[in-house]
Design goal:
The protein is of the alpha+beta class. The chain has two domains: about 120 residues, no CATH class; about 160 residues, no CATH class. The chain is built from seven helices and four strands; from the N terminus they run βββαβαααααα. It has a four-stranded antiparallel sheet, covered by helices on one side. It is elongated.
Length: about 325
């Protein structure tokens, strides 16, 4: 589909006179309003100084106004936003802290929501609480207002962190289930070589150990709320892959005589022999602990180095 050509506009070097213009391809074309520089004349349905359409004026007084706008992303998706204006002569101690908390609240709200959805209503109710606290602040109840805003900010922060931790856990769970599905589906199949069985089982056990580790430590996992949910999902996938490599690496160490003294009573099994119970246990532990395999390999390397030095002294 060919888009209509944009009309040329004259450059404007004065940023103070910049204004929104109607765009023929904008989904919010019908919501264009003229900016209004005088906040004391703001009205519902009209524009503020930035050209945003005022949906609702929450509170107004001689030296301040608090109002809501809806930022439209499409015909049925929008985000409620909270703004306020004050008289330049108004000097309120602590207003900077209030601005910080409000900025954090606005940043943590997922504003691109379907109008009327549960998340959209949650955003509206949260911002109404924030607006009420802001009104309390201007009514000389500064301490209580700051506590409410700080509490709202903390709850939203916790909500976003929990959602991202769950995505991290989900990513680990999904990828950890793959080797188990493959093992159960192909186990005993004549089309799969015999040596394949112990290694896929070792990978499955290691990834199960990694999943158990994630579930056990998920509450203390530090997450960045600026990351998208899918970023945490793929981070969880990476954690499961690291567990897989640890389990396979430990099985290689055990079956290559690097780490076998506490595992095998008799001779070493071949690479394609079924896993022994002790091997299963250590593969699971390798996936659970990220440091087990590096420590074992490091000690093995130190042991080899020590034997070499001893032999040189004897000669």
């Amino acid at each position: 589909m060919k888009l209509p050509e944009e009309e040329a506009v004259e450059p404007n070097k004065d940023w103070k006179t910049h204004r929104n213009v109607k765009s023929p391809t904008s989904p919010a074309d019908n919501r264009y309003v003229e900016p209004n520089k005088d906040w004391k004349t703001y009205r519902n349905g009209e524009g503020d100084r930035s050209g945003r359409k005022i949906e609702q004026i929450y509170a107004v007084d001689n030296d301040y106004i608090i109002y809501f706008t809806d930022h439209e992303y499409s015909e049925d998706h929008a985000g409620r936003e909270l703004f306020y204006e004050t008289d330049p002569a108004l000097k309120k101690e602590g207003l900077g802290k209030v601005d910080t908390e409000l900025a954090g609240i606005n940043r943590l709200l997922d504003t691109n929501q379907r109008i009327g959805s549960t998340e959209y209503k949650f955003n509206v109710s949260t911002l109404e609480l924030a607006a009420g606290a802001l009104r309390m602040f201007f009514c000389k109840e500064e301490t209580e207002a700051q506590e409410i805003l700080k509490s709202l900010h903390a709850k939203l922060q916790a909500k976003e962190e929990v959602q991202r931790r769950l995505m991290y856990q989900l990513g680990t769970l999904v990828i950890a289930a793959v080797p188990w599905v493959l093992y159960l589906f192909f186990h005993g199949s004549a089309y799969v070589p015999r040596w394949w069985n112990p290694w896929i089982l070792a990978a499955a056990l290691a990834m199960a150990g990694g999943l158990f580790s994630v579930c056990a430590t998920i509450g203390s996992l530090e997450v960045n709320v600026n990351l998208k949910h899918w970023d945490l999902f793929f981070s969880g996938v990476t954690r499961a892959v690291v567990a897989l490599l640890a389990g396979v690496g430990l099985l290689l160490a055990m079956r290559s005589k690097i780490f076998a003294g506490i595992t095998y009573d008799g001779g070493l099994p071949n690479s394609g022999d079924p896993l022994k119970t002790a091997e299963m246990f250590f593969c699971f532990v390798a996936g659970f602990s990220e440091y087990l395999v590096p420590n074992i390999l490091s000690k093995a390397a130190d042991g080899k180095s020590g034997k070499g030095k001893t032999g040189n002294r004897k000669s």
